[in-house]
From TrEMBL:
This is Streptomycin 6-kinase. It is an enzyme of class 2 (transferase). Keywords: Kinase, Transferase. InterPro entries: Aminoglycoside_PTrfase, Kinase-like_dom_sf. GO terms for molecular function: aminoglycoside 6-kinase activity. It comes from the Bacteria. Its EC number is 2.7.1.72.
Amino acid sequence: MAKTNKNFRPDPVGAEIEIPANVNEAVTACWPELAPAWLKKAPDELAGICERYEGRPVRTFNARYGFVVEIATAHERLVVRSTPDPRGMDQAQVAQALFNMGVGPRIHDVVQTPVSVWTVASRIFPGDSLKGETVPVERLAPIFRKMLDRKTENDRLPTLVDWLRSRLNDERSNDLPSGRTWASQVERRRAAAILEDLGTEDSNMVCHGDASSSNILVGDGEELFLVDPRGVSGDVCYDVAVAAWKTPTDEQASVRAANLARLVGVDTERVQAWLVIAKAARV
């Protein structure tokens, strides 16, 4: 029996591709001033991209803050993503860096319009995410080994440290995982102190920034790929911590993080410190 791709949002045959209701709601809550124009113009912009690549939209994918659509062309399947996020260009630059390292899909184009940023990427096949799948750390390790000691080409990218510092200090953010509540002030203060101790020595290194199970896709030959980066520079040890914590397992997160760190070849104590911060920041 064929495996169903959990990222697909089936669209009725012949139906017009629309921005999903959950994306509409999330974008409106996060960027109320930018959302109206984006919601109005993004479907027309999609039509323009389809015309440019001589393709047709097939279906939408599950996403939180982006309009993500599969396009069928005569040559290949593409995945296009539009977001009104002011950090959209930063996200696109990190996505390109991940492709250059062999851990992300090919980026064909980045299109910036007055209301959004579009990335045009090759479709990963089969493209299932690891969400809900138990995966051994031995399978995750090759991704992060490829990311070791890789500097960003753009030294003006926002930093992971700054993003986490802001998140630990601001309970008003509406970007909270479903079903979660903010950490206590004591937990956040402790995490903030650890964050400062880690310093900014890796602030110009390539970092995905959100290596959770839904952003890790299975490709040909069971190879894994990272998609939908946060658009920051930082420390791959943070990615190791988040991947260990946010991929399904029966292992304790700290044990799993230490095991993955050893396989990747990074400092286990540093990964454990990032794990404490990530949990307190409710990433």
